[in-house]
Amino acid sequence: MGPIKIMVNGLPGNMATIFVQRALTDPGFDVISYSLTGPEIEDATCTVADMTFELIHPQDRQQKMDMLLDEMGTFISIDYTHPSAVNDNAGFYCRNDLPFVMGTTGGDRQLLEEAVRGSHTAAVIAPNMAKQIVGLQAMMDYAAKTFPGLFTGFTLSVKESHQKGKADTSGTAKAMVGYFNTMGVPFTAEQIVMERDPARQTKVWRIPEAYLGGHGWHTYTLDSADRTVHFEFTHNVNGRDVYALGTLDAVKYLSAKIAAGARGTVFNMIDVLKRK
To answer: Catalytic pick from 82, 131, 162, 257?
Structure first.
């Protein structure tokens, strides 16, 4: 079995660029020199690590995709585009029977999964591609299911900081809120405190300046009603490499599942970790 053919969508965005850099160093992957991009991008090409990619704009994507599928056969698409494009891109992948890994957060996640289940393809969809953070989420999911109501009577505060260009609230933070809800704590995603101001990130959060352009710092704090009991869960990530490495594993997992006949199936990063 040869290298896995992949198309990385979202260039020249930061996450797509970092993922390409990682994939090009791994002989297990064959990176296609095309990338779907947004309507706001004026450039026709983008160069990453000495490889030039043709950027495909929305109005040209079906024609180009027909050509690519005819020339190259099946490949896996990796989506690191923009939250506003999540559902439209997923619909495009499904209509073209393109298996995909959705690394972009945001959009209507229920609609996203329904699109895959109603299609002839399969996808890995997760709010976070960092395996270690996904492992933490799996532990929280276990606690929520095993000990519902565990934190009844406690109050929750959630704050998250990401680079200025991140448009949406962290999908990981939203997922964690869901676990705490099950454990008895009333809290909504709208109550999550989002930080996107580099000045505050440096002075208040003490995030290293080198990582202001790419980081994910999260803190979840629980306090009992009388303030005598305090819990705090924190995970801070500087840079984006951890997400790229997790995405590589997701692609390998999805490739194996597609080869085994998976169709109309949604997988997540916990599936990837379990390797089932």
So the answer is: 162
